[in-house]
Amino acid sequence: MPQASTNPPSEEPTVEVRVGRIGRAHGIRGELTVEPLTDEPDRRFATDTRLREEGARREFTVTGSRWHSGRLLIRLAEAADRNAAEALRGVLLVADVPTDQPPAADDEFWDRDLVGLQVRRHDGTPAGRITRVQHGPQDLLEIRTDTGATRLVPFVEPLVVEIDPAAGFCRLADVDGLLEDLDE
């Protein structure tokens, strides 16, 4: 997979994105385990990427990353040995991502591109707006319907059949009870 830096030029508008939480040190040379909090760990932890500690001024430069036994291991220029690596345990890492940077895959979307989209029923009639994306084992779109109710719709292709952020809408499949209670 190609490695790219997430360092945007300073004049480009950016958004702060959580990318990972530092875990325990690995080995004696300062390698760190990281719990990725991004769908693009290879992109966000590429060599020469600049990261920051969330809520603090500390900055870090990734000098290398690799996968080992299903875990992401990274090296930071600022953690040259095991003691320095252990001192970073629990740190939340953020990256400044250009607001116009597309996700790595064509069928992926940033939360910020989905929140606010008009939700349309299968026939194109407006039904509400996406207010939030909930992440977990199954990503869910939180939708505020035109009646004021909140509904959760699994963010899967069979249910969310069209997404057009440029046009400002997403269209749902023709499934009974998706946006309304069946006993209404």
TrEMBL record:
Keyword set, alphabetical order: Chaperone, Cytoplasm, Ribosome biogenesis, rRNA processing
Stretches assigned to the Ribosome maturation factor RimM PRC barrel domain: 112-172
Localization of this protein: Cytoplasm
Coiled coil (residue ranges): none
GO terms for biological process, alphabetical: ribosomal small subunit biogenesis; rRNA processing
Residues of the RimM N-terminal domain: 19-96
Matches recorded under SUPFAM superfamilies: PRC-barrel domain, Translation proteins
UniProt xrefs under InterPro entries: PRC_barrel-like_sf, PRC_RimM, RimM, RimM_N, RimM_N_sf, Transl_B-barrel_sf
GO cellular component: cytoplasm; ribosome
Main localization category: cytoplasm
GO molecular function, one term: ribosome binding
HAMAP family noted in UniProt: Ribosome_mat_RimM (MF_00014)
Family according to the record: Belongs to the RimM family.
Subunit text: Binds ribosomal protein uS19.
Domain remark in the UniProt entry: The PRC barrel domain binds ribosomal protein uS19.
Biological role: An accessory protein needed during the final step in the assembly of 30S ribosomal subunit, possibly for assembly of the head region. Essential for efficient processing of 16S rRNA. May be needed both before and after RbfA during the maturation of 16S rRNA. It has affinity for free ribosomal 30S subunits but not for 70S ribosomes.
Protein name per Swiss-Prot or TrEMBL: Ribosome maturation factor RimM
